[in-house]
Amino acid sequence: MTAEQLQTLIAAGLPCEHIEVTGDGRHWSAVIVSPAFEGKRAIQRHQAVYATLGTRMHTDEVHALSMKTLTPAEWAAQA
Q1: How far apart are CA 41 and CA 3, in angstroms?
Q2: Residues ≥6 apart with Cβ < 8 Å to 17
Q3: What secondary structure letter does DSSP report for 37?
Q4: Do strands 18-23 and 64-70 pair parallel, antiparallel, or not at all (unpaired)?
Q5: What is the rounded CA–CA span in Å between residue 30 and residue 40?
Q6: What is the pLDDT of residue 44?
Q7: DSSP type of residue 53
Q8: CATH code for the part of the protein at 3-78
Q9: Are strands 27-33 and 64-70 parallel, antiparallel or unpaired?
Q10: Residue 47 in 3-state DSSP?
């Protein structure tokens, strides 16, 4: 799995205004900005991202993924 492949999987399952994935092939870090996160707690946001990966988390294809999940307004407030 490459960063680009992981990014494509997430973007295919969630409307993303910004997505950045970095990692070493097993341990990944992602910044994901999506309007789908509006009104959701952090755990719900993470579950939405995990859902885009399907069984890849369970089969160890994606061993670890740390996430920063933001709404567009939260992302804009950081700039």
Answers
A1: 25
A2: 33, 34, 35, 72, 75
A3: G
A4: unpaired
A5: 18
A6: 98
A7: H
A8: 3.30.300.90
A9: parallel
A10: helix
Is residue 8's pLDDT more than 80? yes
Domain ranges of the chain: 3-78
Q: Of the candidates 18, 16, 28, which has an alpha carbon nearest to the alpha carbon of residue 56?
A: 28
HSE-CB for 32 with a 13 A CA cutoff: 32
Count of positions (residues) in the chain? 79
The 10s digit of each residue's pLDDT in 26-59 is: 889 999 999 999 999 999 999 999 999 988 888 8
Sheet holding 64-70, edge to edge: 18-23, 27-33, 64-70
Task: Name the strand (E) or helix (H) holding 69.
Answer: strand 64-70
CB atoms within 10 A of CB 20: 13
Q: Residue 6, Cα to own-chain centre: how many angstroms?
A: 9
